[in-house]
């Protein structure tokens, strides 16, 4: 507590001495907004449920009461996103056979499987199985796990994360991708996408806690929730029939049935010379029914219009959704999503309050509460394809996703996806001014930069800043949250919550955004960053 008091006293003294910093994030308001949004009244804020309706109504009421303007087209508070929904309908048959030897797998505990194809039934009978390494085709990195092997019509098994994850120092693959930091190639959405591009019938990602960044229980807990996808022009081509995860234990048994060892195949897959390995004689059956339809979910948009350059927008965003009502745990089926992400929404509302109450910024400041992040960043994906505010005149996107409660102001501030843009440097100045230190993501292997709503816009060139309040990696609170509450019904607000630490970090992000809103600067991606070229194209289009 002494450390917290020292930081807090230093921050308050600096604010008192500097009129420009008089506006401050209120930790009590942050806590109360989180408590309200994480209550059972919102039923876990599942997309396309009564929980969504209540959440959207509440968000509009909050933004309106703060005096903000609607940010959507034609004076609307919302952007409607068209999405495809599939839901489990009855039991699944999951089995494998090699001659007279048969294996039966349990849905959820062994294999989690669904489909984004809008069909009533998925039926893959006795389909050949191929181990395809990490499932990566990255020509710019000189890597191709598929070579000239045809996996069309087969079920492929792929390893989570990148080929260099966990490689010992001196290994030929070490740092071939980004070392400990997961790239987009390591993420399951990429692996699903690449499986479809290869013509596979199905894809199962082999789970391990270190590589995924979360335990199997996190996946199992949400396994009965509906699946959502953006509406695709040709879903039968763009999505495999069956996609999901397989536990490490189940994968070992399946691979052993084909006469191979999972550990040996893992090591072989770390070589650029790796070629897919068919599990000779193994046929796998995946069969299940599902309901499907097209539904609408909503992004909520608000703004403060700039006084001089209203078409240039500094954006703050946080996703409003959690998992709604899903698999019960200890009698509780409401996934309240208090940390993830009622805290982030509360932060956006507090930021909106400061901008609404303060001097009019020169640029506009936009506030978006995204839909369906937990289902694959769908609200942000839809927005990136259908932007309300042109992406080439969107100055930066500051993301708010999951703030841990606590009174202590940590001496470090974590930035997710460090050194990708010059926004880090702008934040670093603020952090060091307060006697604190900016540090990179302590768990880069989890690929968090590719797992939150700034990513679809980043892929379209908009520089992003994502700082994770409280997730320093070295404290017991962050480790306990990931192990025991992340994506669980236990992610609930409790009366002992306090938000001083998170408020201090959100304050820094307010100041970064305020500076940008009152400047003529255009943040840039770092040289060599994967989105640098797209931003330069935007810069060229923006020139008179």
Question: Your description of this structure?
Answer:
The protein has 544 residues and is an alpha/beta fold. Helices cover 31% and strands 26% of the residues. It is built from 16 helices and 20 strands. The chain has helices spanning 2-17, 27-37, 50-65, 188-197, 209-212, 216-221, 235-238, 248-257, 262-268, 338-357, 378-385, 423-433, 454-459, 476-484, 500-517, 532-542; strands at 69-70, 78-98, 101-104, 111-114, 121-131, 137-138, 143-144, 155-159, 202-206, 227-230, 242-246, 277-304, 309-319, 324-329, 332-335, 363-370, 394-399, 412-415, 437-440, 464-466. Strands 1, 2, 3, 4, 5, 8, 9, 10, 11, 12, 13, 16, 17 and 20 form a 14-stranded mixed beta sheet that branches. A two-stranded antiparallel ribbon has the order 6-7. It has a two-stranded antiparallel sheet with strand order 14-15. A hairpin with a 2-residue loop joins strand 14 (324-329) and strand 15. The relative contact order is 0.17. Residues 1-21 have low confidence and may be disordered.
Tags for this model:
544 residues, 16 helices
Name the helicity range. 25-40%
Mind summarizing the main beta sheet?
Answer: 14 strands, mixed
Q: What class, by secondary structure content?
A: alpha/beta
Q: What's the β-strand tally?
A: 20
Unreliable stretches:
1-21
Number of H/I helices: 16
Strand content: 25-35%
Distance between the termini: 54 Å
- The value of Rg in angstroms is 23 Å
Shape: globular
Mean model confidence by pLDDT: 92
């Amino acid at each position: 507590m002494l450390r917290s008091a020292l930081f807090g006293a230093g921050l308050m003294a600096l604010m008192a001495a500097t009129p420009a910093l008089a506006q401050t994030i209120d930790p009590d308001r942050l806590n109360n907004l989180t408590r309200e949004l994480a209550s059972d009244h919102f039923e876990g804020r599942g997309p396309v449920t009564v929980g969504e309706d209540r959440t959207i109504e509440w968000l509009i009421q909050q933004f309106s009461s703060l005096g903000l303007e609607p940010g959507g087209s034609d004076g609307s508070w919302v952007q409607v996103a068209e999405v495809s929904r599939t839901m489990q309908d009855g039991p699944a048959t999951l089995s494998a056979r090699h001659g007279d030897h048969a294996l039966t797998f349990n849905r959820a505990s062994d294999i989690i499987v669904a489909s984004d194809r809008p069909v009533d039934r998925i039926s893959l009978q006795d389909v050949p199985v191929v181990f395809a390494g990490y499932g990566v085709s990255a020509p710019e990195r000189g890597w191709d796990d598929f070579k000239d092997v045809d996996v069309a019509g087969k079920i492929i098994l792929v390893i989570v994360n990148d080929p260099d994850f966990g490689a010992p120092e001196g290994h030929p693959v070490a740092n071939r991708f980004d070392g400990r930091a997961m790239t987009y190639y390591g993420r399951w959405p990429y692996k699903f996408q690449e499986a479809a591009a290869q013509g596979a019938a199905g894809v199962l990602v082999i789970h391990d806690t270190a590589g995924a960044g979360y335990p199997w229980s996190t996946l199992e807990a949400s396994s009965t929730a509906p699946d959502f996808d953006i509406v695709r022009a040709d879903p039968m081509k763009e999505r495999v029939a069956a996609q999901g995860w397989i536990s490490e234990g189940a994968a070992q048994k399946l691979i052993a049935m084909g006469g191979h060892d999972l550990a040996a195949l893992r090591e072989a897959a770390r070589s650029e010379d790796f070629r897919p390995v068919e599990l000779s004689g193994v046929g796998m059956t995946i069969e299940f029914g599902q309901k499907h339809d097209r539904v609408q979910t909503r992004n909520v948009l608000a703004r403060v219009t700039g006084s001089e350059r209203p078409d240039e927008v500094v954006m703050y965003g946080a996703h409003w959704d959690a998992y709604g009502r899903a698999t019960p745990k200890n009698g509780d089926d409401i996934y309240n999503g208090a940390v993830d992400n009622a805290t982030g929404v509360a932060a956006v509302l507090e930021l909106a309050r400061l901008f609404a109450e303060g001097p009019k910024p020169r640029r506009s400041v936009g506030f978006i509460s995204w839909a369906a992040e937990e289902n694959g960043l769908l609200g942000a994906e839809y927005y990136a394809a259908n932007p309300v505010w042109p992406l080439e005149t969107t100055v930066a996107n500051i993301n708010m996703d999951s703030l841990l409660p606590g009174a202590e102001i940590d001496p470090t501030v974590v930035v997710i996806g460090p050194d990708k843009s010059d926004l880090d440097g702008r934040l670093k100045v603020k952090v060091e001014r307060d006697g604190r230190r900016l540090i990179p993501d302590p768990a880069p292997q989890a690929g968090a930069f590719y797992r939150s709503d700034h990513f679809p816009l980043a892929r379209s060139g908009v520089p992003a800043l994502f700082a994770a309040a409280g997730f320093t990696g070295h404290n017991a609170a962050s480790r306990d949250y990931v192990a025991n509450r992340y994506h669980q019904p236990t992610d609930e607000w409790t009366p002992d919550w306090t938000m001083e630490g998170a408020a201090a970090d959100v304050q820094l992000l307010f100041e970064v955004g305020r500076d940008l809103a009152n400047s003529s600067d255009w943040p840039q991606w770092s040289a060599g960053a994967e989105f640098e070229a797209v931003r330069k194209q935007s810069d060229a289009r923006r020139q008179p």
